[in-house]
Amino acid sequence: MKTKQFRNSNSFLRNEFESSDAWGFPLVKKQELDLSNIDLIACSDTSSKDTDNLYKGVHFFTDDYRFESLYTHPERSLEKYRKYRFLLTPDYSLYSEMQMWRQIESVGKARWVGAYWQNKGLIVIPTISWAQPSSFRFCFDGVQKNSIVAVGMIGCKRERIPFMKGYNVMLEKIEPSAIICFGEPFPEMEGNLIRIDYLSSRKAVRNGR
Q1: Which helix (H) or strand (E) holds 40?
Q2: Is position 12 within any domain?
Q3: How many helices (H) and strands (E) are present in the chain, helices listed first?
Q4: Is the entire prediction scored with pTM above 0.70?
Q5: Residues 6+ apart with CB under 8 A from 199
Q6: Which end of the chain is more exposed for a tag (fewer CB within 10 A), N or C?
Q7: Phi, psi (5° rounding) for residue 86?
Q8: Does residue 130 form part of some domain?
Q9: How far is the C-alpha of 146 from the C-alpha of 149, rounded, in Å?
Q10: In which domain, by residue range, is 82 found?
Q11: Contact indicator for 139, 109 with CB cutoff of 8 Å
């Protein structure tokens, strides 16, 4: 039997943040960001001792195991990430092979981490991802309209048609003011795109800018 203290804790309920959709996802709110000089560093390249890359945003377009603790123990990395200019929300995997409950869970975890960071005063840009068309029912929820968002292109080249279906639905539902595009965009992608070179983002500056 669960104790009353555990049963009512935020770490168990995860209900402390505002929600605006039927799924109860925490809302990642729209935030302003100067888009004239956007650069990213991979979460795996960050360090508590880093002083050279603090002008960059942090991305999580990497294996889930590298950032699972952001949800299970969010307080542990808060001070490290607080130093950087902004954060993309973690890109928890959304694969069509996953059961629907797992896909919903991935979206919910990403939104919760984003809301948690915003609550702690960090600048947060929601990462948007999707799977098969049935995921469109929930994968664009929990993000305030007209927000700046981020999308990843890695691994999408062979899935151009399904990617574009989801991308166009995202444009309709979120109406993003800008899209930080991690990787080379397809020519038909509309919107205010800010392209980020994948390879350069993985070469963290170690000895100054």
Answers
A1: strand 40-42
A2: no
A3: 7, 7
A4: yes
A5: none
A6: N
A7: -160, 170
A8: yes
A9: 9
A10: 36-201
A11: no
- The pair of structure tokens assigned to 149 is 């968002």
Q: What are the pLDDT digits (tens) for 162-193?
A: 999 999 999 999 999 999 999 999 999 999 99
What is the rounded distance in angstroms from the CA atom of residue 145 to the CA atom of residue 104?
20
Query: CA 169, 172, 173, 177: dihedral to nearest 10 degrees?
Result: 120
Per the structure, the count of domains in the chain is: 1
* SS percent in the chain: helix, strand, coil, step 5: 35, 15, 50
Residue at 111 is within a domain: yes
Residue 15 within any structural domain of the chain: no
pLDDT in tens, 95-127: 999 999 999 999 999 999 999 999 999 999 999
Tell me the C-alpha distance between 10 and 115, whole Å.
Answer: 13
Q: Where are the alpha helices (DSSP H) in 39-159?
A: 69-72, 78-82, 100-119
Nearest Cα neighbor of 199 from 178, 179, 180, 184 is 184
Sign of CA dihedral 191, 204, 128, 189: positive
As given in the structure block, the two tokens for residue 25 are 């996802």
Cα-based angle 82, 85, 88 (whole degrees, multiple of 5): 85
DSSP 147-192: -EEEEE-TT-GGGHHHHHHHHHHHHHHH--SEEEEESPPPTT--S-
